[in-house]
Design brief:
Layout (H helix, E strand, L loop, with lengths): L7 E9 L5 H12 L9 H6 L7 E7 L2 E10 L3 H12 L3 E2 L2 E12 H27 L1 H11 L5 E3 L4 E3 L8 E5 L2 H9 L5 E3 L7 H4 L6 E6 L3 H14 L4 E3 L11 H8 L14 H14 L4 E6 L4 E6 L3 H5 L5 E10 L1 H9 L4 E7 L10 E4 L7
Parallel strand pairs: 8-9, 8-10, 10-11, 14-15, 15-16
Antiparallel strand pairs: 1-3, 1-5, 2-3, 4-5, 6-7, 12-13, 12-14
């Protein structure tokens, strides 16, 4: 079925009491729904006529059970789509095993596409504003003020100047003062928060691990002092700088966009990793890829535990000889802090949580940083 003809996605979850293959599930769906509502609603006929697409099965097994998700693309009307969903829900057996299939949602693909188009239109409008402002800054700024007045909020107990998206965005741009907050809005950045001086307020420090923090500082001595304070209080965060001798508040929108889309003046440096540990990780990686499992090694790189990642946190305290954790999951702030306190020195994960603060004494890597995929 061509992607452009899909109107709805039927998403169902399932649990099967026994170990089966994808082919068994597909066979049960086609076999047990055949003839329920006449030949025209047989799934085989619907596929031949491009009314439904290829049925996708995402599954995993645990404790002699199989569970997962079924996705069926549909190009027919919503009534027939709902009937197809109900037919699939009626499947109660996969081979000799009991099965339970339940509808999660019928997703309107066209509605999703409408939202994507609307979001893209907003981006185009922002880009147009930036270009127009840069070409005729004074006149265009006056027009922009009429179209979209700048908003500066008071944030936190210190009542710090902030952009209107500071509470909704996953990423926050830290700047020096109120004028910087306003100027970044001219360039389309509304997720800003001003420090109001060299000292980093306690409420900003508390954002570590909760938000993805970056900084955009003046290219002068004041910016140097703030950068040192940020490094001390917030650790390794990307820091962007205005050109030498210039301030963020005086940059044009085009200059701001160019700097923030480029390479930061200060990047997170990947800590060195022992060669023997790296080789051990390379050998373990294929065995845990896409398994949602974790492996714990001792100081001699012997495997002392292999367990599901949802059981890792409660098991850490018992693994007193553990020094290294390799997991097919996310290195969260909670995991890093707990592992550090229990004497672990290395965590290697599929992904690292945004804005994470890595304390001294422990190293955190992702598989991609180590070149494993």
């Amino acid at each position: 079925m061509p992607d452009g003809t899909v109107k709805y996605l039927i998403k169902l979850k399932f649990t099967i009491d026994g170990i089966v293959e994808k082919a068994d599930i597909i066979g049960a769906i086609f076999g047990q729904t055949e003839g329920l509502f006449g030949a025209e609603l047989n799934l085989n006929e619907l596929q031949k006529n491009w009314k439904i697409g290829r049925i996708e099965i995402n599954m995993q097994s645990k404790n002699d059970k199989v569970f997962g998700e079924i996705i069926i693309p549909s190009s027919t009307d919503i009534v027939t789509t709902a009937l197809i969903a109900a037919m699939v829900e009626s499947v109660e057996k996969v081979g000799p095993c009991d099965a339970k299939i339940q509808l999660q949602e019928i997703q309107d693909v066209r509605e999703t596409k409408r939202k994507q188009v609307a979001e893209r239109a907003k981006e185009i409008l922002k880009e147009w504003y930036i270009k127009s402002t840069s070409e005729g800054e004074k006149i265009q700024n006056e027009i922009y003020e009429v179209l979209k007045p700048y908003k500066v909020l008071e944030w936190g107990p210190e009542k710090l100047p902030a952009g209107p998206d500071v509470n909704n965005s996953d990423t926050i741009i830290l700047v020096e003062g109120r004028a910087d907050v306003i100027n970044l809005q001219r360039a389309g950045y509304y997720n800003t928060l001003a420090l109001n001086g060299v000292k980093v307020p306690e409420s900003v420090v508390q954002l570590r691990g909760k938000k993805n923090l970056i900084a955009f500082l003046d290219g002068d001595r004041g910016g140097d002092l703030i950068q040192k304070e940020l490094e001390q209080m917030l650790g390794n965060i990307p820091i962007y700088r205005a050109p030498p001798g210039r301030e963020v508040e005086e940059l044009t929108p085009a200059e701001i966009k160019s700097i923030l889309e480029g390479k930061p003046a200060k990047e997170v440096v990947l800590p060195e990793i022992d060669a023997s540990l790296l080789e051990k990780i390379k050998s373990i990686y294929p065995t845990i890829k896409e398994t949602l499992e974790a492996v714990v090694l001792d100081k001699d790189l012997n495997e002392i535990a292999r367990l599901p990642i949802n059981e890792l946190m409660p098991a850490l305290e018992k693994l007193t000889d553990g020094k290294h954790i390799i997991l097919d999951g996310i290195a969260t702030q909670r995991l890093v802090d707990s592992a550090k306190n229990l004497g672990f020195v290395t965590i290697v994960a599929f992904k690292q949580a945004e804005g994470i603060n890595v304390p001294e004494g422990i190293k955190v890597y992702t598989f991609s940083q180590l070149g494993l995929y």
